[in-house]
């Protein structure tokens, strides 16, 4: 990843973006019932519930990828549509990503599982100042390919903590973040079971400004070699 295409009323322009830090914010639900539903989804996979929320996981920023395909080991991973917050030259931008995670590893340790897969992101983003005033109206969704494209997640970002709130909480603990900072801001519950798919599509729609960010990527499952 070397640049972001910033889409605004003035058109689209590319800005250089060199990632310096990547943080995955987990358990970011604003609604306690929805948050509990997601915690229970992961508990069914053997993932321990957090002692407090939200939780921030530092991972390798080299995992960020705008490529149309990623490779994973086996078929135990899955994607999650998430808003991504970027900081560039002191300004904040809102993008879209998938916190693709190895679910088998997640049962052993969430931090370890977050490092196991690439983190696909859309190449385009919006200025935070353009959307912060009507933030709760944005819609986040994802689709899988199973006998045709099907909704995997769908809902309003109003169910999640705002990105500026998550950033403020993180900076309170760790100090001011640098330029090149990127943070995944949490996800929505899935429709049905958490599951592998050969292709995953993520969408962030702004009905007020009539804009949409979209990214689709293929997942190649590499063979699991026996020792």
Which regions have little confidence, pLDDT < 50, spanning 5+ residues? none
CATH superfamily: Fumarylacetoacetase-like, C-terminal domain
Number of helices: 5
Mean pLDDT across all amino acids: 92
Give the N-to-C terminal Cα separation.
35 Å
Which CATH-level-2 architecture? Alpha-Beta Complex
User: H/E order of the elements?
Assistant: EEEHEEEEEEEHHEEHEEHEEE
What's the count of strands? Answer: 17
Which structural class matches the secondary elements? alpha+beta
User: In the CATH hierarchy, what is the class?
Assistant: Alpha Beta
Q: Could you describe the largest sheet, including whether it forms a barrel? A: 8 strands, mixed
Could you tell me the strand content as a percent range?
Answer: 35-45%
Number of domains: 1
Spatially, the strands of the biggest sheet line up as 2-1-12-9-8-15-3-4
What is the C-alpha radius of gyration, as a whole number of Å?
17 Å
**What is the third-level CATH name, the topology?**
Fumarylacetoacetate hydrolase, domain 2
Shape: globular
Organism: Sphingobium fuliginis (strain ATCC 27551)
Pfam family, one: DUF2848
InterPro entries: DUF2848 (IPR021269), Fumarylacetoacetase_C_sf (IPR036663)
Protein name: DUF2848 domain-containing protein
What does this structure look like?
With 227 residues, this protein is of the alpha+beta class. The chain has a single domain (3-221), classed as Alpha-Beta Complex (Fumarylacetoacetate hydrolase, domain 2). It has helices spanning 32-43, 103-106, 110-115, 128-131, 163-174, and strands at residues 3-8, 11-16, 21-26, 55-59, 64-65, 69-73, 77-78, 81-88, 91-98, 101-102, 119-120, 124-127, 139-145, 149-156, 181-184, 199-206, 211-222. The chain has an 8-stranded mixed β-sheet with strand order 2-1-12-9-8-15-3-4. Strands 6-17-16-13-14 form a 5-stranded mixed β-sheet, with no helix packed on it. InterPro entries: DUF2848, Fumarylacetoacetase_C_sf.
């Amino acid at each position: 990843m070397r640049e972001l295409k910033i889409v605004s009323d003035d058109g689209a322009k590319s800005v250089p973006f060199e990632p310096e830090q990547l943080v995955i914010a987990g358990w970011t639900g604003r609604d306690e019932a929805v948050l509990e539903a997601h915690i229970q989804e992961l508990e069914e996979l053997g993932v321990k519930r957090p002692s407090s929320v939200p939780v921030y996981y530092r991972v390798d920023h080299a995992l960020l990828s705008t490529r149309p395909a990623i490779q994973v080991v086996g078929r135990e991973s899955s994607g999650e549509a998430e808003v991504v917050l970027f900081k560039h030259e002191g300004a904040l931008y809102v993008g879209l990503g998938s916190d693709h995670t190895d679910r088998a590893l997640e049962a052993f340790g969430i931090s370890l599982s977050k490092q196991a897969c690439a983190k696909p992101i859309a190449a385009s983003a919006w200025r935070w100042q353009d959307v912060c005033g009507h933030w709760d109206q944005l819609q986040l969704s994802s689709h899988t390919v199973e006998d045709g494209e099907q909704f995997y997640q769908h809902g309003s970002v109003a169910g999640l903590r705002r990105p500026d709130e998550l950033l403020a909480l993180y900076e309170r603990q760790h100090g001011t973040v640098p330029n090149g900072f990127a943070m995944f801001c949490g996800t929505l519950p899935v429709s049905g079971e958490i599951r592998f798919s050969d292709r995953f599509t993520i969408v962030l729609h702004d009905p007020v400004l009539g804009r949409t960010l979209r990214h689709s990527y293929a997942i190649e499952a590499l063979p699991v070699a026996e020792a």
